[in-house]
């Protein structure tokens, strides 16, 4: 029993360290040592768990990653030597950095202990980086994205996850302090002017309100959401203007017009495509339309298996049968960070329906696993119910962000999601093994009792036969 407690405690400590490194690595990309340590620890944990057996979620994610690697190797989009270069993981290889912590945490079986350590990690990151967010808002410069993740999507992903984590906690537990942390976590999102994160947070609000069917919880979330929206529009009028500009009918008309004329191909500058268009809208919006159209056309050419992992940014030199399979075979390849700015189109273009189904299947299976854990009876289930709900809202956040960014493969989204959703999966693994152990014990006990009853019946029949031999002969 003591050995079992020590083993559970060690797994809990490993999961805590891994989650802390993921959060630090996502929030401070200029300190790559945190990301490197998180990846090394993830690899060690995963390799050590193979001998102990892997969960179904781990196997599903492993199949998705293996399919991705084989897709790149078979089509020439990835070379074996690329996996040993840093440039690869700064480009297309970011997908592997995204899912490796999930692979490790989904392999762990963590005792369902308190979540105080995870809360402290999030609070520490908010306290350390909040002055930078305020500086960025006051000076109206791009200081926050440049210092942290070199992209406004980075702070949106990191602090969007933290905002939802504390927001659902304060709404479900009726504690006011997590609400303060949720408001503080929203400030870096506003400072980075990330419309993607703001819209995705709003979508997560709607999900929690509708999915829970709890009037009081819905009321509290609606009130907190309105407060956060008011704060966001007050502290960053520029961001509010950008949000309004996207919602204008003229923008949708410009998007439709530009989609018809977009002809962007890898190797060309997006500015050339913009010059050919007469649409009047933000360059940022029209550029995403050009890249999304290129990804959609790639998918239509090879819908089943895609054009090959890592081939989105490569020059077209493909062969096959359009509409069935149409893959790159020539070595015209580049390692680049440019994406379709749409996770679904990006996955469909490179991996086809098969690869996309594997990744979306992993997320849907994780969502269902959390739902089952949330409905668990007993005091421990009630204690962690808000955490499972928060992780479900984070999955919705990733799905909503995926329509206008590559949130299903960008580490700025994946590392904080691993620290929360991955940790919750590890907790459900412990519950699953616990239930499985009880089921096995029950079955073993049932078989033992059945065997005992059979033996008693045989003994009774023998005693009757000895006492009445005439009746037996008859």
Automatic annotation (TrEMBL):
<dbReference type="GO" id="GO:0016020">
    <property type="term" value="C:membrane"/>
</dbReference>
<feature type="transmembrane region" description="Helical">
    <location>
        <begin position="180"/>
        <end position="211"/>
    </location>
</feature>
<keyword id="KW-1133">Transmembrane helix</keyword>
<dbReference type="GO" id="GO:0016874">
    <property type="term" value="F:ligase activity"/>
</dbReference>
<feature type="domain" description="O-antigen ligase-related">
    <location>
        <begin position="182"/>
        <end position="360"/>
    </location>
</feature>
<feature type="transmembrane region" description="Helical">
    <location>
        <begin position="156"/>
        <end position="173"/>
    </location>
</feature>
<feature type="transmembrane region" description="Helical">
    <location>
        <begin position="125"/>
        <end position="144"/>
    </location>
</feature>
<dbReference type="InterPro" id="IPR007016">
    <property type="entry name" value="O-antigen_ligase-rel_domated"/>
</dbReference>
<feature type="transmembrane region" description="Helical">
    <location>
        <begin position="34"/>
        <end position="52"/>
    </location>
</feature>
<keyword id="KW-0812">Transmembrane</keyword>
<feature type="transmembrane region" description="Helical">
    <location>
        <begin position="12"/>
        <end position="28"/>
    </location>
</feature>
<feature type="transmembrane region" description="Helical">
    <location>
        <begin position="217"/>
        <end position="235"/>
    </location>
</feature>
<keyword id="KW-0472">Membrane</keyword>
<feature type="transmembrane region" description="Helical">
    <location>
        <begin position="95"/>
        <end position="113"/>
    </location>
</feature>
<dbReference type="InterPro" id="IPR051533">
    <property type="entry name" value="WaaL-like"/>
</dbReference>
<feature type="transmembrane region" description="Helical">
    <location>
        <begin position="386"/>
        <end position="404"/>
    </location>
</feature>
<feature type="transmembrane region" description="Helical">
    <location>
        <begin position="410"/>
        <end position="429"/>
    </location>
</feature>
<keyword id="KW-0436">Ligase</keyword>
<feature type="transmembrane region" description="Helical">
    <location>
        <begin position="59"/>
        <end position="79"/>
    </location>
</feature>
<protein>
    <submittedName>
        <fullName>O-Antigen ligase</fullName>
    </submittedName>
</protein>
<dbReference type="Pfam" id="PF04932">
    <property type="entry name" value="Wzy_C"/>
</dbReference>
């Amino acid at each position: 029993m003591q050995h079992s407690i020590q083993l559970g405690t060690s797994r809990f400590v490993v999961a805590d360290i891994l989650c802390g490194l993921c959060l630090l690595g996502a929030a401070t990309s200029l300190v790559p040592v945190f990301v490197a340590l998180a990846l090394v620890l993830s690899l060690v944990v995963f390799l050590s768990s193979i001998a102990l057996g892997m969960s179904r979620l781990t196997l599903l994610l492993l199949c998705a990653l293996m399919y991705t690697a084989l897709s790149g190797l078979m089509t020439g989009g990835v070379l074996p030597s690329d996996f040993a270069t840093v440039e690869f993981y700064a480009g297309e290889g970011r997908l592997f950095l995204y899912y490796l912590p999930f692979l490790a945490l989904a392999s762990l079986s963590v005792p369902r202990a308190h979540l105080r350590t995870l809360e402290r990690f999030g609070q520490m990151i908010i306290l350390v980086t909040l002055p930078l967010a305020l500086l960025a808002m006051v000076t109206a410069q791009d200081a926050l994205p440049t210092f942290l993740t070199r992209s406004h999507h980075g702070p949106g992903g990191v602090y969007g996850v933290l905002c939802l984590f504390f927001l659902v906690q304060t709404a479900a537990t009726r504690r006011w302090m997590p609400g303060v942390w949720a408001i503080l976590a929203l400030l870096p999102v506003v400072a980075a002017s990330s419309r993607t994160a703001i819209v995705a947070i709003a979508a997560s609000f709607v999900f929690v309100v509708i999915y829970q069917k709890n009037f009081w919880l819905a009321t509290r979330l609606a009130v907190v959401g309105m407060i956060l929206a008011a704060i966001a529009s007050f502290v960053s009028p520029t961001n509010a203007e950008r949000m309004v500009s996207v919602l204008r009918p003229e923008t949708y008309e410009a998007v439709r017009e530009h989609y018809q004329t977009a002809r962007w191909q890898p190797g060309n500058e997006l500015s050339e495509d913009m010059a050919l268009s007469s649409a009047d809208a933000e360059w940022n919006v029209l550029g995403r339309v050009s890249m999304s159209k290129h990804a959609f056309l790639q998918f239509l050419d090879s819908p089943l298996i895609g054009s090959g992992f890592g081939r989105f940014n490569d020059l077209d030199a493909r062969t096959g049968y359009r509409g069935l399979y149409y893959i790159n075979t020539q070595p015209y390849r580049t390692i680049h960070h440019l994406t379709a700015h749409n996770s679904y189109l990006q996955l469909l273009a490179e991996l086809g329906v098969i690869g996309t189904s594997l990744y979306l299947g992993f997320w849907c299976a994780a969502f269902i696993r959390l739902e089952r854990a949330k409905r668990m009876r007993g005091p421990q289930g009630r204690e962690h119910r808000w955490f499972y709900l928060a992780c479900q809202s984070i999955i919705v956040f990733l799905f909503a962000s995926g329509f206008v960014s590559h949130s299903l493969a960008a580490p700025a989204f994946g590392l904080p999601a691993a620290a929360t959703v991955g940790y919750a999966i590890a907790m459900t693994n412990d519950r699953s093994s616990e239930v499985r152990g009880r089921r096995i014990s029950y079955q073993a006990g049932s078989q033992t009792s059945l065997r005992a009853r059979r033996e008693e019946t045989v003994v009774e029949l023998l005693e009757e036969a000895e006492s009445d031999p005439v009746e037996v002969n008859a």
